[in-house]
Design goal:
Helix 4 (112-130) runs antiparallel to helix 7, helix 4 packs antiparallel against helix 11 and helix 7 packs antiparallel against helix 10 (250-259). Mean pLDDT is 77; it is low at 164-179, 289-305, 313-328 and 373-378. The chain is α+β, with helices and mostly antiparallel strands and 378 residues long. It has twelve helices and ten strands. The N and C termini lie far apart (156 Å).
């Protein structure tokens, strides 16, 4: 049962003013509110009265205790928590965005690289939680929010389980005889059997199912009753991703299969290992794109220009001064260099060498031919 708006408002501290309901879930309702001192818009998550059993209330308080100590760029923080009348609540920042399920339903599929980039950020958030002995146990598209800047945020640690050491046995599911906690479409095989026995690798499986949804637009096992879907996670393989997205690279399909391995030991050992694998895939995909682009790119046609190509000889030494002794004796060095655009003749011919006596004879002959002949008469 949704809390009565006036009663809830009366039970909250006076610095909060409720505005409207912005989300509803199976165990809680989220309100948009205005906070004074500091002046900011916040989201207040309130446990619904009808689900206010002891187990639900303890689970809710556990969520508050866990996330209130987290400061991570991809995890929604908690500002404060308390109880308003019969209702537990906690306050978190209001993020102007939408969850990934609604985003895909509205805009359609994202590119494989964009999806992997998002999943990598979530893996980093899970690694942060796992290092602090926290398992989320409810990773799914609707718990991943994209804010207005495009940053993904992990929401709803309400099913989180803290395990202080390997011998720790207490959990909400044991104490209250609850077998399954989580969402059936993204539940790991071991979590479907016993929620209290899972570890961090269950989150990796759920993130794999989320990756499957982001690539295909539907969960791995989209049809059947709750029981049939839970069993499918244990003993069936989902349809190939490439049946819906032929453009998904085989390397990404292989990475997804490992995330969704039925046996926990076959998955990535830690979220940190998964984070490294996703980062490597992104790096390789960028390199592959660059290689493909270079292969498909047409060569640029440059205009042809006449280039100087002198005959290879002692006169056309590539670099450095020319040794005069190395030149042929019949070919003296040119007096001037040709302009840069001029082409050298096919073969340089030596200038004609004429002796001085021959030149003098020709001059005398020309003078005699030009001298008029004077006749003395007949």
């Amino acid at each position: 049962m949704t809390p009565d708006f006036p009663d809830l408002q009366a039970g909250l501290p006076s610095r909060y003013t409720l505005e409207k309901v912005i989300a509803r879930g199976g165990a809680a309702v989220v309100y948009l509110a205005q906070e004074r001192h500091p002046d900011r818009r916040v989201a207040i998550k309130v446990l619904t009265e009808g689900l206010g059993s002891l187990a639900e209330r303890q689970r809710f308080l556990r969520e508050v205790d866990v996330v209130s100590n987290f400061t991570h760029p991809h995890i929604v923080p908690v500002f404060s928590a308390g109880e308003a009348g019969n209702h537990l609540y906690y306050v978190m920042p209001y993020l102007d965005g939408e969850n990934l399920r609604d985003r895909l339903n509205r805009d359609g599929a994202l590119t494989a690289s964009d999806i992997v980039d998002i999943v990598r950020d979530v893996a980093g958030a899970l690694d942060f939680a796992h290092q602090r002995n926290v398992v989320h146990r409810d990773v799914k598209p609707s718990n991943l929010l994209l804010d207005e800047s495009g940053t993904v945020k992990l929401l709803d640690l309400g099913l989180a389980r803290i395990y202080e050491n390997a011998a720790e046995q207490s959990s909400l599911t044991i104490e209250h005889n609850q077998t399954v906690l989580g969402t059936a479409d993204y539940l790991s095989p071991e979590q479907a059997v016993d929620s209290h026995g899972v570890d961090h690798r269950s989150d990796i499986y759920s993130l794999g199912c989320t990756l499957y949804f982001l690539l295909t637009g539907h969960p791995p096992f989209p049809v059947g009753s709750l029981t049939q879907r839970l069993l499918a996670h244990q003993n069936k393989e989902p349809a190939l991703v490439t049946a819906s997205r032929p453009d998904v690279p085989a390397t990404l399909v292989s990475l997804l299969h490992r995330m969704m391995a039925k046996q926990a030991d076959a998955r990535h050992a830690t979220a940190a290992d998964l984070l490294e694998a996703l980062t490597a895939w992104l790096h390789d995909s960028v390199d592959e794109f660059s290689r493909s682009s270079a292969k498909d790119r047409k060569p640029v046609k440059r205009p042809k220009t006449r280039r100087r190509s002198p005959k290879r000889s002692a006169q056309s030494t590539p670099a450095g001064p020319v040794d005069a002794a190395a030149r042929p004796r019949t070919s003296p060095p040119p007096r001037t260099s040709p302009p840069p655009h001029a082409s050298a003749p096919p073969q340089a011919r030596p200038p004609a060498q004429t002796s001085a006596p021959s030149q003098e004879r020709r001059r005398r002959k020309r003078r005699q031919e030009s001298t008029p002949v004077i006749s003395d008469g007949p």
